[in-house]
Amino acid sequence: MTNDHAPSRTFRLNCDPSDAERVESLLQAEGFVLAQDPCYSLARGLISGPTALGNALAHTFGYIYIQDRSSMLPPLLLDPPKGGVVLDMCASPGSKSTLLARLVGPQGLVVANEVNPTRLGTLRANLRAQNLPNVVTICQQGQDLPLDEGTWPFILVDAPCSGWGTVDKNPQVMQVWTPDKLAPLVQLQKSILARAARLLAPGGTLVYSTCTTDPLENEQQVRWAVDHLGLQLEHLDPLPGFTVQRGAAPELDHCLLIDGRKSGAQGFFVARLSKPGRSGQPADLPVKTGMADHAVPVKQLTTAHPLNENALKAGTCHLFRDKVFFLHHKALQRLAGRVRWQGLPLGTLRKDRFRIDPTLHCLMPGYDTLGGLNVTDIDILHKMISGQSLPAPGSGKHGGLYWRGLPLGWLKYKGKRCLWSNR
């Protein structure tokens, strides 16, 4: 591929691989030209498009996540299995948590921690947009996470850093984080790493990453973790499409320091460490008593319209005031009674009437079951998004909006017309 046709941005398809072709068709119908990125099967590069990628309908409906290809590396190199449990200690805005959620699948769990309340709001908004019931959020200091030690098999520490690797996109970063200002940041990274080492299960895997090129925050932190925390450094080979810098320090022979310009990406650092000992299946942790008092049977939510109940099999629905949340079974085991946390909000339940969040296409059955509008003309879809209503199909009072069978969201019916709104 020549430089004239190099991707201007990279992103991920946020879908099951079986739906990738339909998500791509939605992008292509709007005039976006894509290319496969070699680092991950659902990663794509944008070659050209009629507008900013953030304006694409696939982005509006949560089927893509715009992300630098270097930023995809930490989850991919942590490589948790299907059904695995992952702790993301510094999660906002959610780029890595959402990728981890795809890797572990519906039966797996990602616990996404963010200490800053404003950034926590951004994280939760992205999780809602991406339709991920298997991610729960907490708001704690990473260095003081009140979780059970020695029980987390996979931990990601994408540490707060100086961001020097983003200098091409953010030139001011070198003035904001001058070398004389780094000491508190380096100490914070050490504190978070130390807590992560205590939380990590024997035989568990920890990935430490930054978007800086500063040795103090990268290889020297890894050396400190090996010398003082009892962790072992594992060897990493670069994923396809990346060029790395080796040899400046012994640790770099085993870590990845991404050469941003040669890789067409941000500068990035990734190290993978493990905790000595044998990995095993942890015993089930007790669930806090009293949680059942808030449980809402799924059948109570399906009286107004059918739901894809398979999307809710890994947990239970609970009512808090008038809001219904999905709580993953593995989160109930690990977090209930230990720390305040939040699952995915599904909608509201007032006077036995459930009003679903219209953006939750993950709860939509197939078009043949739910009905609604199955759009094949991109102009019609643009009209719906702009707020125009269309004649309601059939005689029902509920239905979904689909693109060639791909669920997009829940329609609202007003008399004999229907419209789509994300509220």
Automatic annotation (TrEMBL):
<dbReference type="GO" id="GO:0030488">
    <property type="term" value="P:tRNA methylation"/>
</dbReference>
<dbReference type="Pfam" id="PF01189">
    <property type="entry name" value="Methyltr_RsmB-F"/>
</dbReference>
<dbReference type="InterPro" id="IPR001678">
    <property type="entry name" value="MeTrfase_RsmB-F_NOP2_dom"/>
</dbReference>
<feature type="binding site">
    <location>
        <position position="158"/>
    </location>
    <ligand>
        <name>S-adenosyl-L-methionine</name>
    </ligand>
</feature>
<feature type="active site" description="Nucleophile">
    <location>
        <position position="211"/>
    </location>
</feature>
<dbReference type="InterPro" id="IPR029063">
    <property type="entry name" value="SAM-dependent_MTases_sf"/>
</dbReference>
<feature type="domain" description="SAM-dependent MTase RsmB/NOP-type">
    <location>
        <begin position="1"/>
        <end position="276"/>
    </location>
</feature>
<dbReference type="InterPro" id="IPR023267">
    <property type="entry name" value="RCMT"/>
</dbReference>
<keyword id="KW-0489">Methyltransferase</keyword>
<comment type="similarity">
    <text>Belongs to the class I-like SAM-binding methyltransferase superfamily. RsmB/NOP family.</text>
</comment>
<keyword id="KW-0694">RNA-binding</keyword>
<keyword id="KW-0949">S-adenosyl-L-methionine</keyword>
<dbReference type="InterPro" id="IPR049560">
    <property type="entry name" value="MeTrfase_RsmB-F_NOP2_cat"/>
</dbReference>
<dbReference type="GO" id="GO:0003723">
    <property type="term" value="F:RNA binding"/>
</dbReference>
<keyword id="KW-0808">Transferase</keyword>
<feature type="binding site">
    <location>
        <position position="114"/>
    </location>
    <ligand>
        <name>S-adenosyl-L-methionine</name>
    </ligand>
</feature>
<protein>
    <submittedName>
        <fullName>Fmu (Sun) domain protein</fullName>
    </submittedName>
</protein>
<dbReference type="GO" id="GO:0016428">
    <property type="term" value="F:tRNA (cytidine-5-)-methyltransferase activity"/>
</dbReference>
